[in-house]
């Protein structure tokens, strides 16, 4: 451990406590439930889960202050637990404290158990996994950090990471963290245009990438995508290139191969310095750079990782998300590493080389917690149980689901077939903006019932509130409303990069004084929560969040397309798929098939392949109100063939448009049926 770094069993208790009590009028601070592997029981660790929850909401300063003091190592102690004003979007936690997230994820564990495996890289080709110890990960992180520093990357600079799931991707994230640079990981499935947009918005000074990536047996040209992206990104001074495959990358003037010394002193950072930006979709065409900061995010990721999944020392934690999404950030990298866990990096796909891949991996790596997305489960259950049953899953203790509602069929299959009915299955609700899990069946005392397909219980410190149509908090149970959270928690996002007003408008204006999630939820008779889906124009395709406005913006760039409207409709495997209503310039209706193909390509180039609409319906005009607003409700009914009850159409500018669109859809449906028959 670098000199002067305190906390987490380094015998610095006295100094930490005295400094903390200064803010608490002399009362003594209890020690929180220590992280996994912490020495000895603490006051909070003796409390039941119910008591922990009660304390977290009745005395959040005490709960979170203790947790932060005990679980994290600080370079300087904080003097104030929180300073938040939700109505203005001002959120600060652990003020005055300095720490480094990479010290908490690496150095503290290297001191205790340098040879414990930190990462198991489950490479695309089964049976070729690579283990990386905490000592090795620290070394690689330091090498990368030194390379960044020697090329002029400093504290506060933004660095884009465009890499497939791998130890080097994790080391790249932690290298930024070590020197105080701010990373923004861009999912390697995004197009070069989408990458460029994120680099420009964040003003990145550097990009870290691979020569190539590999997934499902296919090679992905990552460096070439970066080359194309940085052409329009003048802020980028260097592209750092790591090797994933044997093929040498074509190197240009600003490109740097990585090789540097293996020791790098960590930068002490303020609790509220930026840790990372992660771009996600909202209801406008422009993705937003969600800002997370150091201490609060890390503490929340670490605490949720332990309590939601019942993580214990020695477990092999298997979250199969990509590091390009928030799930990868919180439960592949930061939560598990902060807790000294062995975490799996899954580079492949659920069906490569066959639909037994997940369960073969569980058997080979002896995975204890398996955390994945319902979309993959819905796909796998179609292949039958034998792909699961032929592998030994006795190592599994907890199953988790994330990213979208899990339907009953997938829940029961996961629980009974995969988990043999013996592993608690936790449906976890949270978002890029929440930093970590907010609602999940656990935490709860062991044995507390789990209701299938329900997220159920708020995590420590989370107070869900359901709002009615007039913006009033709804009391009582068996009720549905807009899901808000009434008190800030350490993991909540701090801003939208470069646009704090958008942050305030999106999350705190709709219900003043509350965080608004954008989701609706139901509170059952028993007081448990179930997520009912988005209330805005965000859709969820294969667990990936997508703004319909983003797709519309891409489509509208086509010169033959004056106007489009995109909505989401249900899909039995992907959850939802985009359905595009397209108005073409009049003289082009004969060329419609060619134009539609160009539109597909346009979306793939501007955003990503998964964003390409599954359906295109050419219409002569869209249903609009007199003030010019598109009535999406009607489009949804047409696309889902539920037009018997269209609701109130009196506000439409010209109601005859509805008949036109229904007829066009009927034509489209017939065509598709014929095509299916031919196939
Ligand atoms: O609509 C909710 C859905 O995913 C959205 C958040 O997406 P993202 O920021 O990409 O983060 C996904 C991983 C945390 C939410 O607004 N969602 C997430 N988890 C669930 C869910 N919907 C239903 N049930 C869930 N467990």
Automatic annotation (TrEMBL):
Residues 1-45 are annotated as: Disordered. InterPro entries: Ac_CoA_lig (IPR011904), ACAS_N (IPR032387), AMP-bd_C (IPR025110), AMP-bd_C_sf (IPR045851), AMP-binding_CS (IPR020845), AMP-dep_synth/lig_dom (IPR000873), ANL_N_sf (IPR042099). GO terms for cellular component: mitochondrial matrix. The keyword Ligase applies. Pfam families: ACAS_N (PF16177), AMP-binding (PF00501), AMP-binding_C (PF13193). Residues 51-105 form the Acetyl-coenzyme A synthetase N-terminal domain. Residues 18-28 have a biased composition (Polar residues). Keywords: ATP-binding, Ligase, Lipid metabolism, Nucleotide-binding. PROSITE patterns: AMP_BINDING. It comes from the Eukaryota. Residues 550-629 form the AMP-binding enzyme C-terminal domain. It catalyses: propanoate + ATP + CoA = propanoyl-CoA + AMP + diphosphate; acetate + ATP + CoA = acetyl-CoA + AMP + diphosphate. Residues 107-492 form the AMP-dependent synthetase/ligase domain. Belongs to the ATP-dependent AMP-binding enzyme family. This is Acetyl-coenzyme A synthetase. The gene is ACSS1.
